[in-house]
């Protein structure tokens, strides 16, 4: 660790990240259709139900749909340079397979962009953030069906044509590699996971990769200034022991995750993926047009980072990181959050260097944060949360980001997840809070939805104002 206080580049994009299904609410307003989130009241790691139910907090979420101006003003007061949010696909195409978009949905995001422009905040838009229209899941089995490539291209083209002169940074799919573990939540695949063949799963993945590359080309055709990135779950994987078999287990686990970004950045499947498909008896339907489409590589690589894991070849070791979508073996040397996510700031420096060395593409940290059970208190007559644990977590991770920048990593920015309390994706709880801003809503749906600044709100404002010089080594 250097003794000099870290200072990030003047151009560094500081901000926060959210997803439509976790903040917007208004699930049946403005012509919006149902998404897969409207039928997963317990979160994306759990089974779907038949329809929207009263216990699904995402149906109202934190009511960003009606309160976006208030929330964006709070972000601006912190000094945000960028705000990552997603467009709800079913707000633009309610069923997903229509020929024409829902103009009321397009108008809503125009209003959001107006508000961001008023405050000088750069938008970073995710096109598909675990929000596949439910109709596409039920009628087509989600991304298993090749037809979704065309539906997604139509949706993306509509967004680029509507907002491409106002939005420079775009992400195609959120945490695309999560489809390996949550096929319904990530890929809108309606076939139960226990019945889903590897052939169908990897064909669905191929369709997503082709769609991502195709819309990357479309974006560049519409406006060459647009920058399109992929987005993956980043997770450094350590061998549990020094046994070479454990090291090989790490290599194989790394390959499973890295394949997605390898295709996004290199424009073709790597050799290890082709071997995996052969060994598994998976024969992908790859057309000549697919091969050409995949050559449209991304401009940058973005990722979420929350934890690291270990891997081992020992079958007697339980490979189950509590609350972790990607599984893995807990590291005995690391502490964990209340939800079992292991805390590893140095892992962020490791992953930044790994990704930069591997792809030589600009990187963007678009999610990083800690879920915790906050307690609203009154200090000098003002309601707040004394969240020193969140400050410590973010401080330690940002120090490692500074180290990676010193290592030579080209990093565009950092959008903390999520700057305002929102409904958890994995558990659909409000009590798993991430924000700098407390939202008065409880797991049972009660609460005023009032917003209150936490102690971390003022801390992050100082970090941005000082370009990181206020971080404590």
Automatic annotation (TrEMBL):
SUPFAM superfamilies recorded: (Trans)glycosidases (SSF51445)
Active site, renumbered: 367 (nucleophile)
Annotated Gene Ontology cellular component terms: cytosol
Matching InterPro entries: GH, GH_1_N_CS, Glyco_hydro_1, Glyco_hydro_1_AS
Gene Ontology MF terms: beta-glucosidase activity
Top-level EC class as recorded in UniProt: hydrolase
A biological process from GO: carbohydrate catabolic process
Pfam family, one: Glyco_hydro_1
Enzyme nomenclature, EC number: 3.2.1.-
Keywords from the named record: Glycosidase, Hydrolase
NCBIfam families: PRK09852.1
Similarity remark: Belongs to the glycosyl hydrolase 1 family.
The name this protein goes by in its record: Glycoside hydrolase family 1 protein
UniProt source species: Demequina capsici
């Amino acid at each position: 660790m250097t003794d000099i206080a870290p200072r990030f580049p003047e151009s560094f994009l500081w901000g926060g990240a959210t997803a439509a299904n976790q903040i917007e609410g208004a699930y049946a307003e403005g012509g919006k259709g149902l998404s897969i989130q409207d039928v997963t009241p317990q979160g994306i790691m759990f089974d779907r139900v038949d329809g929207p139910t009263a216990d699904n907090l995402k149906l109202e979420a934190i009511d960003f749909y009606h309160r976006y101006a208030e929330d964006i003003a709070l972000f601006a007061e912190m000094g945000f340079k960028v705000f990552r949010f997603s467009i709800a696909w079913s707000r633009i195409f309610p069923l997903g397979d229509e020929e024409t978009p829902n103009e009321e949905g397009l108008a809503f995001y125009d209003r959001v962009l107006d508000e961001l422009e008023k405050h000088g905040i750069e938008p970073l838009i995710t096109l598909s953030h675990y929000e596949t229209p439910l109709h596409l899941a039920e009628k087509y089995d989600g991304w298993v069906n090749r037809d979704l490539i065309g539906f997604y291209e139509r949706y993306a083209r509509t967004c680029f044509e509507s907002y491409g002169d106002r939005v420079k940074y775009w992400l195609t799919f959120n945490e695309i590699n999560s489809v390996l573990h949550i096929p319904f939540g990530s890929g809108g695949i309606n076939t139960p996971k226990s019945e889903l063949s590897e052939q169908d799963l990897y064909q669905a993945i191929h369709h997503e990769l082709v769609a991502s590359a195709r819309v990357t080309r479309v974006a560049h055709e519409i406006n060459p200034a647009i920058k399109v990135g992929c987005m993956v779950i980043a997770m450094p994987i350590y061998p549990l022991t020094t046994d070479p078999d454990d090291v090989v287990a790490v290599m194989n686990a790394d390959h499973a995750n890295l394949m997605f970004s390898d295709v996004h950045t290199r424009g073709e499947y790597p050799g290890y993926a082709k071997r995996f498909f052969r060994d598994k008896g998976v024969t992908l339907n790859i057309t000549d047009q697919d091969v050409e489409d995949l050559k449209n590589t991304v401009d940058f690589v973005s990722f979420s980072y929350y934890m690291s894991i270990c891997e081992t070849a020992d079958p007697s070791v339980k490979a189950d990181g509590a609350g972790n979508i990607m599984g893995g073996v807990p590291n005995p040397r690391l502490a964990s959050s209340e939800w079992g996510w292991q805390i590893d700031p140095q892992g962020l420096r490791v992953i930044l260097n790994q990704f930069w060395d591997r792809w030589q593409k600009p990187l963007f940290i678009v999610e990083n944060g800690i879920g915790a059970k906050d307690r609203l208190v009154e200090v000098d007559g003002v309601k707040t949360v004394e969240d020193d644990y969140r400050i410590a977590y973010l401080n330690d991770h940002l120090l490692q980001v500074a180290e990676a920048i010193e290592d030579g990593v080209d990093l565009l920015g950092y959008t903390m997840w999520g700057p305002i309390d929102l409904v958890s994706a994995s558990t659909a709880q409000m009590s798993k809070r991430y924000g700098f801003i407390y939202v008065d809503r409880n797991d049972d749906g009660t609460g005023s939805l009032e917003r209150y600044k936490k102690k971390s709100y003022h801390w992050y404002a100082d970090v941005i104002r000082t370009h990181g010089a206020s971080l404590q080594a």
